[in-house]
Design goal:
single chain; about 475 residues; alpha/beta; Rossmann fold; six-stranded mixed β-sheet; globular; binds pyridoxal-5'-phosphate; binds the ligand N[C@@H](CCOP(=O)(O)O)C(=O)O; pyridoxal phosphate binding
Length: about 475
């Protein structure tokens, strides 16, 4: 499989190339030259596969440059019960008889869904770097969960350093402690005076400097990296088969969304032929995506207008993977996509309602819901009382949005994107008690912190990286 840029159709090479490069040189995102599809019979043959074997079947069509035995070995090394808590890897739990299901994606090392793909990225980077005798310096941006998932996945990896940018003071106490308490030679935490979007823009700006990127071997682990999106598509297949539906019957999915990586992975699964009906994009008060799917206007929020909320990992005003979606909606028209992203870059809205693209957008299965802090508290409380299940504030956003789009006889799978332990303050406010946390995280907030603070400035960041990398 060849990959191209969303903005120019430039040939970006094969999977291992885009894994290491992360972003396209023109600032676009890597996309496969086409999306392979499964026939109904091929889909049926995937039922009952173990998680790593299913991952192989779903990912293989996009990865032609790793030999079969090696890819299978990587996936079996990644998706193990010892890492994800059970042989199921992503258990699917019904919420009573409601027709709602929780897809448990947060039983990995950092207690958030990011582990699902990031653990694969750790193994894949190690494998490719070894083969090519190279090193990579990952520059990432986090609003709370990507950071710790990446750091845990790359911990101790000889050929990898992680430089993780986080928005200063805007993550939960647990999230901050989880990242900043790491004191490892290959992990560098950097708190940026800004919001997540500033961190993400810095990552893109540094990557756009071709000379700097090449000199310092800069790579990416955010969902701007195709490897993340691809590995995330697998659990949609897994959940679908776990429902035990007859062939062709649809399932709906509700996805707490921010950077549009998770729900885009669901869309990828749908485009590959999985009978996904609706994809509910659940937003918090930062409702840029909700605005698009209800009005057709994609208008990113400047940093000053990104609200601080109680589902902080979704405090995003500019959704990176939305570019991949609009590229597909435009029929893989890179010139059109580049034009739209010029508008986005200039802070102007992209208006699609009265264009030929709107019917395609409306029929692509996306629906949108949004919640407030009060909604989140009420949902956490209600799910706890009704179903005896404690959920985190992001998952609550997803459950509430999903409930709003129920279709008779169609299951609604709500993605559990983090464990409640990561957001103790909000959960306590909702139910008056503190969620259990794994013993390895007890008292983490009082540990010493290792984190540098930098201004929101690419030159300062480059100087920092150059100094650390020599
Ligand atoms: C707990 C949690 N829920 C939801 C999201 C939003 O997911 P995405 O950015 O893939 O849309 C994130 C961060 O990305 C997260 O950490
Ligand atoms: N919500 C994320 C933000 C980055 O998302 P990604 O999926 O693009 O890495 C976080 O928690 O860090």
């Amino acid at each position: 499989m060849k990959y191209v840029s969303t903005r120019s159709q430039t040939d970006l090479g094969s999977f291992c190339d885009v894994l290491l490069s992360g972003l396209a040189p023109d600032g676009g995102l890597a996309m496969p030259a086409f999306i392979p599809t499964f026939s109904a019979a091929e889909l049926e043959a995937l039922r009952g596969l173990s998680y790593p074997d299913l991952a192989y079947a779903v990912m293989r069509p996009f990865i032609s440059d790793i030999p079969e035995a090696d890819l299978r070995a990587l996936l079996h090394a990644t998706y193990r019960a010892e890492v994800f808590g059970s042989p199921d890897i992503t258990p699917l739990t019904p919420l009573g008889e409601s027709g709602l299901y929780l897809l448990e994606l947060s039983n990995g090392p950092s207690l958030a869904f990011k582990d699902m793909a990031m653990q694969f990225m750790g193994h894949a980077f190690e494998y490719v770097l070894e083969k090519r005798d190279q090193r990579v310096n990952i520059l990432g941006a986090t609003s709370g969960d990507t950071g710790s998932a990446a750091e845990y996945a790359m911990l101790g990896k000889a050929r990898v350093n992680v430089f993780m940018l986080s928005p200063q003071g805007r993550m939960s106490a647990f999230q901050q402690a989880q990242m900043y308490s790491l004191n490892e030679p290959n992990i560098f935490n950097i708190a940026i005076e800004g919001v997540f979007d500033d961190c993400q823009d810095l990552v893109k700006e540094v990557n756009a400097d071709a000379e700097f990127k090449a000199k310092y071997h800069i790579g990416a682990v955010n969902s701007i990296n195709w490897g993340r999106v691809l590995a995330q598509a697998v659990y949609y297949f897994r959940a679908y088969f776990a429902l035990g539906l007859p062939a062709d019957a649809e399932a709906d999915f509700s996805v707490p969304s921010g950077n549009f990586g998770n729900v885009f992975a669901g869309y990828l699964a749908k485009r590959m032929g999985l009978p996904v009906g609706q994809l509910i994009v659940a937003s918090n008060e930062n409702d840029v995506l909700h605005e698009f799917f209800t009005t057709g206007s994609y208008h990113v929020r400047p940093a000053a207008r990104v609200a601080v909320t109680s589902s902080p990992s979704m405090d995003i005003g500019k959704a990176s993977n939305f570019e991949r979606y609009l590229y597909l909606i435009a029929g893989a028209d890179a010139v059109q996509t580049a034009g739209w992203w010029d508008e986005v870059g200039a802070g102007r809205p992209v208006e699609l309602r009265d264009t030929a693209h709107w019917p395609e957008i409306q029929s692509s299965g996306f629906r949108a819901g949004k919640s407030t802090h009060a909604d989140r508290l009420a949902t956490i409380r209600r799910v706890d009382e009704q179903f005896g299940r404690l959920i985190d504030p992001h998952t609550a956003d997803g459950v509430l949005a999903g409930e709003g789009f129920r279709r008779s006889g169609v299951p609604m799978v709500c993605l559990e994107t983090a464990l409640p332990a990561k957001f103790e303050e909000t959960v306590r406010e909702a139910v008056g008690r503190v969620p259990e946390r794994p013993t390895r995280f007890v008292g983490i907030e009082s540990k010493e912190r290792f984190c540098d603070v930098l201004p929101n400035d690419a030159a300062a960041l480059k100087a920092y990286l150059a100094a650390k990398l020599g």
